[in-house]
Records
---
Amino acid sequence: MTKLSVNINKVATIRNARGGNVPNVPQVAVDCEKFGAEGITVHPRPDQRHITTKDVYDIKARIKTEFNIEGYPTPEFIKLIKEIRPTQVTLVPDAPDAITSNAGWDTKVNFQFLSDLADEFKAMGVRTSIFTGTDPEIIEYAAKTGTDRIELYTEPYATLYPKDPEAAILPFIEAAKIAKHLGLGINAGHDLSLENLNFFYKNIPYIEEVSIGHALISDALYLGLERTIAAYKNCLK
Ligand SMILES: CC(=O)[C@@H](O)[C@H](O)COP(=O)(O)O
Ligand SMILES: NCC(=O)COP(=O)(O)O
């Protein structure tokens, strides 16, 4: 079964536009769970432009499913993970001013850094996932760090999918096979949508979790959150 973790960054973007508490971000997290989400994902960024540090504590206090916190492992981020102890930490190599995540780690170059972090998070009982592309060598080095999982960066899949679905999925099928063979759990995310999710799932049904935010929250403007989450879960069958 592939779990759906709803990324609620964009809900915080709307809230922050006015500086008040509308929409109420932790309440939206609770409601996503009520509507069937099997996890909540947030990606607090250094400029706190959407999810704030306070949101992370407030969400942790309210949700009952899996909490996935994504981010670049600065000392502040590592401290947050130590205090919150989420279900999963996803390490992402974003520069502080990145508009959004735009690449996976070079796990060869950053091997020692990532290995030390995987040790540290695993010792505190937090599942670790490393954001990667599909290059086999990158995945081999990810496995050597001792990480529990990788998260495949699916933007290249989403971009090519409308033109050539078979070509778009091929590197992901190969990458997932290698990761599975190496004993890694596999997550996926970035730009997954109602248009491209089912094809991804059908080709790699053993993906453990997809985290989806931008398209899902956009769809919810038309369909409402409850129908939207049901529609996304329907793509994972
Ligand atoms: C790690 C990843 O793929 C991202 O999709 C991310 O969590 C989204 O971040 P933004 O919502 O800030 O674009
Ligand atoms: N890890 C990917 C994520 O959480 C959401 O990415 P997106 O759906 O907002 O592109």
Note: The pocket of LD2JLWAY (ligand 2) is lined by residues 7, 41, 70, 151, 189-192, 211-215 (CB under 6 Å).
---
Amino acid sequence: MKIAVVGTGYVGLVTGTCLAETGNTVTCVDINEEKVKKLQSGVIPIYEPGLDILFNRNTAQGRLKFTTSLAEGIEEAKIIFLALPTPPDEDGSADLKYILGVADDLGKLIKNYVVVVDKSTVPVGTAEMVRERIAKNATCEFDVVSNPEFLREGVAVEDFMKPDRIVIGTSSEKAKKIMEQLYLPFVRQGNPIIFMSERSAEMTKYAANAFLATKITFMNEIANLCEKVGANVDDIRRGIGADSRIGKRFLFAGVGYGGSCFPKDVQALAKTAEDNQYDFKILKSVMAVNTSQKTKLIEPLKNYFSGNLKDKQIAVWGLAFKPYTDDIREAPALDNIRILLELGAKVRAYDPEAMNNVKQLLGDKIEYAESPYGALLNSDALLIMTEWPVFRTPDFEVVASLLKNKAIFDGRNLYEPKEMQEMGFYYVSIGR
Ligand SMILES: NC(=O)c1ccc[n+]([C@@H]2O[C@H](COP(=O)([O-])OP(=O)(O)OC[C@H]3O[C@@H](n4cnc5c(N)ncnc54)[C@H](O)[C@@H]3O)[C@@H](O)[C@H]2O)c1
Ligand SMILES: O=c1ccn([C@@H]2O[C@H](COP(=O)(O)OP(=O)(O)O[C@H]3O[C@H](CO)[C@@H](O)[C@H](O)[C@H]3O)[C@@H](O)[C@H]2O)c(=O)[nH]1
């Protein structure tokens, strides 16, 4: 099938590549000329494990192409995916200007029946708005379908190729058949398609992200209480995770959730509730708890240095919002670094993939090390923000010899408190 993907960011690139892998001919469109040039010359602009193999295979076989021209990209396409940004507007709602702008253009360009698919995370009612905007200019039939994406960065290829489920919102039988055919290779591997209305599909995406953000936040609150009552959140996680009704995943306490999705989507769902005169109390608490959780270790760090961090050098391990990505959007590390700098401290950081992105943002406001141990040189204490595997089993003798103080503030619970104590470290983690 001939497919167009408009927006070649994280989701567009993974969607386009994976759909080419299942035998479709895909053209990805992006207005960012530099990005398209890179992609055309075989350079993938994001770090995503495993994507390169599929990308190289499908570009070499001519099934995956890139262009800046919307008209060229959608030519003869049977399906047009919209994988465009939906960043928070000033009031927290999802900004639909990219999606609706492209919908206006599509109306003028489509010549034959086509299915337009919202892959972006969009508020309830967006499919109807997209339909109206296309219809204003269109001279042929078309359908608009909601097909939210559930992939996680770092395991995006696996999530796309082996999804827990594919959600398709449509009221059109014709579009339903086309989408079913597109996803047949996935269905044959046992991945279910769940059909529903456009509105329900849009809501499903927000409900999934808000639920997971709530699950994490609940564990962060349990962790905070554990600290007060002398319990260990790791034990609680194992204890409740063994109950299949609760499940083992997304129960890790830490320095809050970040990334390009949970923060903005929880906020957008709260705004939808507000716009519909519904007081969504849990979401408000989730946002408030997460904000304070992100910089929770600053207080104990300050206390360790008797309330004064001026001229102290803090080593920071991990800048990405989670491991296996170079994405720093809403990363807890950035909030902590901002406060440390405000308090007069110096920061020396290391991250396996995200340092270039941080350099673009912070420049020489902080120092960048070439290795985890390099970050410890002349540092007064270590702050851990991301659970990259390289941080999990360091040589603690080397750590102790490089740090000026044997003090570690661990936002990801990487080490055993008892062992750290036995080795003579001052060790603060979350909920233990
Ligand atoms: N990143 C994720 O893990 C993830 C997962 C599931 C869903 N989503 C949702 O998918 C959507 C896209 O997210 P993303 O992370 O891929 O965004 P992104 O910001 O990485 O990429 C968006 C791309 O769209 C391009 N673009 C902007 N306007 C354009 C236009 N008029 N024509 C063509 N291209 C245009 C940009 O240049 C950019 O390359 C969002 O709604 C997001 O919430 C993201
Ligand atoms: O037990 C956990 C699990 C995750 N996190 C944090 O939660 C955030 C989000 O993690 P994750 O969900 O793995 O990353 P994303 O790539 O942002 O993926 C989420 O957001 C995407 C965009 O909507 C969805 O498609 C995915 O299904 C959804 O998991 C990160 O800061 C993690 O550190 C925790 O603190 N504890």
Note: Residues 6-12, 29-32, 35, 83-86, 98, 101-102, 120-121, 149, 151, 153, 260-261 surround nicotinamide-adenine-dinucleotide (ligand 1) (CB under 6 Å).
---
Amino acid sequence: MALSQIAAQGLVLLGCGKMGSAMLAGWLSEGLPASSVWVIEPHPSDWLRGTGVHLNQPLPDAPAIVLVAVKPQMMGDALPVLQALGNGETLFVSVAAGTAIATYEEVLGESTPIIRAMPNTPAAIGRGITALIGNTHAAEDHLSLAETLLAAVGQTVRLDHEGQMDAVTGVSGSGPAYVFHLIETLAAAGEAQGLPADLALQLARATVAGAGALAESAEESPAQLRVNVTSPNGTTQAALEVLMHEDEGFPNLLHRAVTAATERSKELSRG
Ligand SMILES: NC(=O)C1=CN([C@@H]2O[C@H](COP(=O)(O)OP(=O)(O)OC[C@H]3O[C@@H](n4cnc5c(N)ncnc54)[C@H](O)[C@@H]3O)[C@@H](O)[C@H]2O)C=CC1
Ligand SMILES: O=C(O)[C@@H]1CCC=N1
């Protein structure tokens, strides 16, 4: 099914905060007409008001997809509004972290096709990646419908089982924040070495963006790309000896960070 077919039946977005807006911005820029999108959002931003979507208006009877993008903690209040669309043709896709498929089935009915997805905010510029897993009522058609929608804002990957979702959340869902923090801290380190703040930020931002683009397009592995920068006994080697330190270096730090995010996702699922 193409984006135009989703447009014909309608798309409902429940919650349009940071992640909902990132995806909506991507869909609108890919040509999804604002007139085929219904958004339920108690605190709409000026940007959302300006998009021309149906905002807090009565919903269509059988939209192609309802996309749930409220915080896990708000789910109990938010989901019942959608109950009337359950057990029908409408596909539900939720991007909420740490909210198990069973939670949606309890409210929407067990025969509702439900897909749990984990996107990330680069979706706003069509560079996201979303992992997907469906319930037993999510047929191949439903998965490819969700992929059509999510592929409009980046890559998609299917998971083998729902248990993988916690680690996916720790790597790619939360991951952009780690990279933004890398930019912030690289710039701060440049400032500490005497660079003006705006120059340090420009250098850090361009370096992370350029290295990311190279890592994505190059045939060499990230490890080889790192070696290509590292002259024997040069400046990079001096830095990497700090970053690759067994206890205090990047590997241990990122391992702990991703473990913390994964464990938090599991905790949220337990309620
Ligand atoms: N921000 C991110 O990078 C990512 C977020 N997610 C998931 O997306 C979901 C939303 O996260 P954010 O956008 O970051 O949070 P957010 O707080 O920016 O957005 C949530 C939105 O839901 C609205 N809302 C609250 N109660 C509502 C209700 N009863 N009905 C409709 N809307 C309601 C809020 O006004 C708010 O605008 C979360 O479940 C999160 O786990 C998933 C992947 C990445
Ligand atoms: O921080 C969170 O809980 C959400 C899920 C992944 C990114 N943001």
Note: The domain at 175-270 is CATH 1.10.3730.10 (ProC C-terminal domain-like fold).
